[in-house]
Amino acid sequence: KGKRFPDSMAKTIPIWCCVLNRAIQRHRLRAINQGSGLNSETSAVVPNGDAEEYSGSSNWDSSVHLPVWVLETEKNAIEGHIEEWADLFESCGADIHSLALGLQKPLRPLWISQNTRIWLNEVPDHQLWDFTPIILVSASASGAVATQRTASEFSWRYIPGAGDDEESWARGLTPTLFWKHSYDLLDGGPDLCNQLVADIVEKDRVYRAQRGEHSPQVIVKHVKCSRHGLEPYTGDHTIIAQPMNSNPSTIAPANTQYSNGGHVVFWIGTSNLAVGSTMQVADGLADMDCILNCDSTSRLPPSSSEDSYLELPIVGSKDERFSLLNNLPKAVSFAKKNLIARRKMLLCCQNGEDISICVALAIITRLFSDTGKHDPECNYI
């Protein structure tokens, strides 16, 4: 709100541009300094093979370029870390040689927003620029969020960033399909939008299936998330459903799900680990031996044994950056104790798709072998 550009465009991408430029500059200087003369590899890395001219680094800009609205103190802090980040980038095994071969001019970000004014007759030919431009375009309007009116009878509210994670709301619609049918979708209005999207996505799926292309069917069910299970209704919240395992007593293969009394959980292979949402499984915990609740906003009915229930009020990274990291040791320790006892364990968070997945990944990484088997002799620290 109130920003022309998100931090990813104002800081993160410019930092990456500078780190890449710095790493390439180091690589070229090392290539020049090796040996008494230029070999074929050095000539390819250094533009025009001019080692003498390049030795002073005068024609390769590796400084930080940030937008003017970034405070000078913050810019100085970023500049103080560039060398450190360039060291880390080089140590990670990146193919800097290929970058140096392909990039003949240093990277530099340029910012374009709704308030940008460009006179095309004053823009020089790109070949005359002394850098490789990274064009950062933001469609966000600065200022408060306001309801805007289009040429049609429907108004809309634009919220910057609300289009992220389109898999949770797009119902299988891709950008290509949207622009191909944009007039029909917009003219249909809110009441017909969902049905139009379903028809478009299904027709495209059939079209691709007839031509032998991969075209999995997308099933969208209307559900009401409550503590009493999943109830059909006509609201806007949707889930993407996959075929369910007909035998809840058997641990399903990876990435499949089963429903027991209307409660949906996802088993992770044969690990005895399952993930789910606290809103969906609160009343369906009879099949679980122990529960790790990572939901900071909801409490499940704890069992009588302290060994079978652990509540970790983990919040999202936007609210508390280190909340997940600080709670992982307790989560892994709890899981280790229960998995050794061969107990079926449920990991749950508010939506079953965020924090619980991160915790499950940490547990699997720490407590399971490369072949996917639980290792009771693991050395957890």
TrEMBL record:
Q: Which Pfam families match?
A: Init_tRNA_PT (PF04179), Rit1_C (PF17184)
User: Which GO cellular component terms are attached?
Assistant: cytoplasm
Native source organism of the sequence: Aegilops tauschii subsp. strangulata
Q: Which domain of life is it from?
A: Eukaryota
Q: Which GO terms describe its molecular function?
A: tRNA adenosine(64)-2'-O-ribosylphosphate transferase activity
What is the protein name for this chain? Rit1 N-terminal domain-containing protein
The residue ranges of the Rit1 DUSP-like domain are 308-375
Give the Rit1 N-terminal domain ranges.
Answer: 1-202
Provide one Gene Ontology biological process annotation. charged-tRNA amino acid modification
**InterPro entries, sorted:** Prot-tyrosine_phosphatase-like, Rit1, Rit1_DUSP-like, Rit1_N
Q: Which residues cross the membrane?
A: none
